[in-house]
Amino acid sequence: MLLAIQTAQTNRQMQASAWKTWLTPGELVADPIATNKAHAEQTKGISGHKHGPPHVQSYRAFIAKLINMAEAKATEETDKNHVKLLQQHLTNYEASGVQQGWTSIDQFRVRLTKEGQGIVNYQLSTMLEPAARHQIEIALAVTLKLIESEVRPGAPPRSDAERKLQISIDELKAQLAAMK
């Protein structure tokens, strides 16, 4: 159990150097989560399918929902320009197809907290042209802030599994101490 918790903690801490982490309204992650579930059902037991990796599908759903939510709140011209940039990114992304999704996004994960907020972790692809990648990063940050998301520097919060494992370790330590 100690090895498992140390591995989980190390992985979570390393995510801070590779991924952006945002705490978002829960509404933003509902579509990507549903997309992940639908992908899992479509591909269950199928090897060699042509649906691409699930994070490629859920990233598309995330960008589409983010654009939809940000359009309603974009009042300043700079905000509208960032939304337009994301719309163009989404158009290009969809035109590339799922097999080329890796050229835009390396990793993308979403989950819902117990409090109903979304946690979004992502890393844009290093295959994106650097200036384009920078513009997309800024557009994502501006639009996420526009819909009242908060960037979470550092490691993401512990997962439920990590919390449960820590509780089990603490209980086992207490039992061992009582046996002495």
Task: Summarize this structure briefly.
By secondary structure, the protein is an alpha+beta fold.
Report on this model:
This protein has 180 residues and is an alpha+beta fold. The protein has 6 helices and 4 strands; from the N terminus they run αβαααββαβα. Strands 2-3-1-4 form a 4-stranded antiparallel β-sheet. Helix 4 packs across helix 5. The protein starts with a helix and ends with a helix.
- How would you characterize the largest beta sheet? 4 strands, antiparallel
Mean pLDDT: 89
- Counting DSSP E segments of at least 2 residues, the number of strands comes to 4
Class of secondary structure makeup: alpha+beta
Q: How does the overall form come out from the CA principal axes?
A: globular
SSE topology sketch:
Blueprint: H1 2-18, E1 20-24, H2 26-43, H3 54-73, H4 77-96, E2 105-112, E3 118-124, H5 130-146, E4 150-151, H6 160-179
Antiparallel strand pairs: 1-3, 1-4, 2-3
Any descriptors?
alpha+beta; 12% strand; four-stranded antiparallel beta sheet; 4 strands; 180 residues; 62% helix
